[in-house]
Specification:
The protein is globular and about 45 Å long. Helices cover 34% and strands 15% of the residues. The protein has a 4-stranded antiparallel β-sheet. Helix 2 packs across helix 4. It contains 6 helices and 4 strands. Bound molecules: flavin mononucleotide. The site of flavin mononucleotide has 12 residues, from strand 3.
């Protein structure tokens, strides 16, 4: 598939059907993240692939635990693929995705956040190319900000001083994949 076509067809999926993805596919998506552009060529980000639906569910609930809904007035994300903003009854920030990649960077590195989201973008495009559903999810920092979270990071060997920045959910779409939304006018020019 042509690259621009692939980019247009990628959608953030929040309805996942049962069924784990192959370990090989997960490794390929992680590789795509490792080859993302990165500030200063430092290759500082670290990716932990959770290939375990029960663990993904547990971390997904931690991801929502500190979600502050009080300042969401009027926010709206998607009718076809409702987010936790649209549907307050959703209990996991990972929407039942069977595999999830957590992307970590150094807490004090100036470009830690852009580095992580460059990884995430490479990863969702790779997922699309492999026929997988995906979604980028934020709130990385808060997710592991507890005794339970710190224990998981120790177990996974995440180095001291690193913090999660975002997640890439992976799985298979339950139902239809929504069509692309039209692009807002006036967002580009060539000078
Ligand atoms: C920086 C960033 C943070 C995001 N955080 C979340 C999130 O926490 N939860 C979620 O369901 N979707 C999240 N998304 C996905 C967006 O909601 C989604 O990309 C947007 O609605 C456009 O839809 P599309 O990806 O299908 O084109 C995030 C996307 C980006 C780029």
């Amino acid at each position: 598939m042509e690259l621009l076509e692939l980019m247009k067809r990628r959608r953030s999926i929040r309805k996942y059907r049962d069924g784990q993805i192959d370990r090989e596919a997960l490794e390929t998506v992680i590789q795509a993240g490792l080859y993302a552009p990165n500030a200063g060529g430092g290759q500082r980000s670290m990716i932990v692939g959770i290939h375990d639906a029960a663990l993904a569910e547990r971390v997904g609930r931690m991801n929502l635990a500190r979600f502050d809904r009080s300042r969401l007035l009027g926010s709206y994300v998607s009718k076809e693929q409702p987010s936790v903003i649209d549907d307050p009854t959703i209990k996991s920030g990972f929407y039942g995705a069977p595999s999830v990649c957590a992307i970590f960077t150094q807490r004090d590195f100036l470009y830690g956040i852009p580095d992580a989201f460059c990884c995430a973008e490479n990863m969702v495009l790779m997922a699309q190319a492999l026929g997988l559903a995906s979604c980028i999810v934020a709130r990385g920092e808060e997710t592991f900000d507890s005794e339970e979270g710190a224990a998981l990071l120790r177990e996974w060997g995440v180095p001291e001083g690193y913090t999660a920045r975002c997640f890439v959910l992976l799985g298979y779409t339950d139902g239809e994949t929504p069509m692309e939304k039209p692009r807002r006018a006036g967002r580009w020019k060539i000078v």
